Amino acid sequence: MSPVLDPFGRLQLGGVSLAELVGEVGTPTYVYDVDAMAAGARELVAAFGDAPHLVAYAVKANTAGRVIRAMAGEGCGADVVSGAELRVALGCGIAPDRVVYSGVAKTDEELDEAIGCGPRGICAVQVESLEEIGRVEARARAASRRARVGIRVNPSLDLKGLTHASIATGHDEAKFGVPRVDFVRAVERIEASPHLELVGIGSHLGSQFMGEGQHLEAARMLFDFVRTMRGGGGAKSLAFVSVGGGFGVDYTGELADPLRPADFVTAVRTEQRGAGLDGLALVVEPGRSLVAPHAVLLAQVIQTKVAAVARWLMIDAGMNDLMRPALYQARHRIVPLVGAASGPAAVPWRVVGPVCESSDDFGEHLLPSDAPDAVAILDAGAYGYTMANRYNGRQLPVEAFLSGGRLVSSTRREPVDGWVADRLSAGC
Ligand code: LLP
Description:
With 428 residues, the protein is α/β, with parallel strands linked by helices. It has helices at residues 18-25, 34-46, 65-73, 83-91, 108-116, 130-142, 183-191, 213-231, 261-274, 288-291, 324-328, 417-425, and strands spanning 4-5, 11-13, 16-17, 29-33, 53-58, 77-80, 99-101, 124-127, 147-154, 178-179, 196-202, 240-242, 281-284, 295-306, 311-315, 334-336, 346-352, 361-368, 374-378, 398-403, 406-410. The strands form 3 sheets. Strands 4, 14, 15, 16, 17, 18, 19, 20 and 21 form a 9-stranded mixed β-sheet that branches. α4 (83-91) links the parallel β6 (77-80) and β7 (99-101). The structure holds ligand LLP. Residues 58, 60-61, 79, 102, 167, 204, 207-208, 244-247, 285-289, 324, 328, 382-383 line the site of ligand LLP. Ligand LLP is lined by residues 58, 60-61, 79, 102, 167, 204, 207-208, 244-247, 285-289, 324, 328, 382-383.
């Protein structure tokens, strides 16, 4: 669940008062409501009913072991984009058979890991170019294995205005996916190889799409491809169609009827049945939608600065902790830990971090004129910690995990000494 105010005006997440938690875990700290994340995954898995499916949780959104294990516990597999993510997914108990691996430039070592794990390698290495097919084939031959591959097709859609340009991938100029015009060649190339088995086709349009229109268009294209391939007597080993991830999250908190991934599944299943492809497994690769809404980033106010042009609220979380506003002009709501954000005493504060960049700016927010001691940045469970870095010699944020209405664990805040020592010795 997203945070709520308790009867005493204190912000709560997962049944825990965040004002009290700050004393325990310090700041900046990501706080995750793991039960709510699991509930979202459960709802999505249930939307498939008895139909063959794989909910491949895109671990890049949130790689915390506890979160991935919770997803696995609800029946999710994983979508990974590196050898390291693959290892984390497998280490969290996800079977190789339930992992799909995308990425435009997988190294030979990463391909070896994917092809070599478990009795038959992972569920599918999703190839993103004609060139990659030859590379996967070479690694499979070297391992004396038959690698299971999927083709990630770039559907060449016009996605302008539907999401931020930096996170749109299913259009002509993007580096992602086998170009639509090369699809048939890709199929022929894979089917001609004794070391490759074509098990799936898919597409991923990008991230943070608020409607289902483009996803359904891409799904229809994929279903048409399958029918054409089968019509020509091919694609005998095809087991799944993946419609990717990208289901948007309502960062405004104001949408009357935001898209629910479970509703999207129902809509795609209808298309699938209409195409007569009920026997194929449907794969979805959601990241953000499962984890973003059920987390906050806690920060304390270091100081204010009031000038003629603005009232700045300077907090101890910066763009190194949460990059999304600086990278994509993303807006996350910011609320005080105690008391309502709005009300007669609320004024616009420009909330900024301590990093030496003008883009270290979380935007203008209505907050009490008496600056709060601490704030929560909402919907911070996806692409938050996973993109955090140590720019300016800053510490990485801590992650705290809530379950059963209490704090169950938190990571250690590494002192800055390690960074100082590392930099002092660099090149020496
Ligand atoms: N599948 C593939 C192949 C992907 O590349 C991605 C995300 C997903 C699934 C999951 O998409 P999701 O359901 O989370 O939207 N850092 C950006 C988002 C980058 C998404 C990268 N790929 C952000 O903070 O908005």
